[in-house]
Amino acid sequence: MSQMPQLAACPSCEWPLESGDRFCGACGYDLSVVPAPPEDTPTITMNGAAAPPPAEGAPVSWPVAPGTDGSDTPAPVHLPSDIRGTDSGGSELHVQGEPMGEPPGEAGPQQPHVPGPHVPGPQPHVPGARPPGPGAQPPGPGAQPPGPGAQPPLPGPQPHVPGPQPDGSPPHGSEPHGSEPHGSEPHAQAAPSGQEQPAARGVRFDRRAGLSADAGDYHLAAPQPVDPRTADLATPPAGTKTCVACRSGHVDRDGYCENCGHAQPRERDHMEQELGSVAAVSDRGLRHHRNEDAFAVSSTALPDGTPAVVAVVCDGVSSATRPDDASMAAAHAANESLLEALPRGTHPQPAMHDAIVAASNAVNSLAEEPETAQEHAPHQNAPACTLVAAIVTSSLLVVGWVGDSRAYWVPADRSSPPARLTEDDSWAAQMVAAGLMNEAEAYADRRAHAITGWLGADAYELEPHTASFKPDRPGVVVVCTDGLWNYAEAAEEMAEVVPPDAAQRPLHAARVLVGHALDGGGHDNVTVAVLPFPAPPQGAGSA
């Protein structure tokens, strides 16, 4: 009777068992039917069959060390390829080139590659030795062993030397003497007879047919960047823009390239306009992600035929909803109102008051649009902006404003004093007007730029400010947002920045002023318009 395996618990219900139990005390499971555990065989088999246990005392066929003769010639050593290998089951490895099923050694005796004693029988295939190629025939019975001076085969891949054809023509796939296949390395010179061929350097990989064996390592070609000067770039579809960075991707509606993801510069990031004797420049600055300023410049004629030049500059309130839309709507509404009132003979100062009211109504209407309701957040106010505008005629200068955007007078004769033409609707201005602080103390306070007047649906009360002047000498009017005057606050500082030829080159002067703000840090959007006084004769027009 076979011995039952010792179990610690029942295989059916896992009830603890004691030594000698034949049945489970809980479920009655017959423990005699439990199969015995297999014997532990640490050898890992590759053919699915367990290796037979080695017989005790079985002799091991070790290769016999060759002896020495009396000629003081050292005995040759055995190469790794001279020893027949075995698999995990103890069977000899099959050598490629020998027919399967034929016992080793029947294909003809094979001799070792070196003279001297050797292990009888065919030699095994050892990893690292070059196996015979496909279709290679085993040596026949009459094959001669290599002579004493023959060199042993080198490990690693061996080149295939095609033999001549029966008709005497060169071998197939060979090149005539003096020519090399395209893209291959020149053939190395053969070593003299009796000298060992140098082994190939590096690791060689199997390659596809037709590739040179000496072509070197594999290389991954890096993608070449597109050169916009020579590349044949496709024309973008109508209504789309091409990326300014990669020059190949299309820009989506959100302003990003579909190819490289680069954010495209917005149209309002930098704007310039020159119309006769008036010019304006607006820039996003160096810190803000978008330009929330806007401007409008135009020229028209009064009923008596004299010219009138108009400039409107607006600054969106960043803490409000849609500040960029608010400034643009206010600038266009005020400009259109002035272009309609001045040719009819309305006095410029009442026309300026009505233009500010029209701008306020345009900004208020934005609060009722569905787009504003979608973007509106509890901590944000309705769309809002500030405004400053100027009208220049042949003898009159009129300014109007709401908020902290400013207008400066800079005479052509710099020996005459410049002046600031507006008063801010801000906390600092109120402190100075009430006599509670001087100007230096007020503008040094962190609440200095908190505005107390603006255009918007949530404004406390609309109070348009207008002022009329009759300068007795030529000069220029600078209309700007706080993005500029923060870097040239006093009238004297502004006059130092304005170029002397500003009346003749207003666009150049506006660019210089914007550059001054950017050089100072560009912490805010910067917008400035330059109007010469008196207005030179010119034809009516608007933009």
UniProtKB/TrEMBL annotation:
Residues 277-533 form the PPM-type phosphatase domain. Residues 112-169 have a biased composition (Pro residues). It comes from the Bacteria. Residues 38-200 are annotated as: Disordered. Residues 96-111 have a biased composition (Low complexity). Residues 174-185 have a biased composition (Basic and acidic residues). InterPro entries: PPM-type-like_dom_sf, PPM-type_phosphatase-like_dom, Znf_ribbon. This is Serine/threonine-protein phosphatase. It holds the Pfam family Zn_ribbon_3.
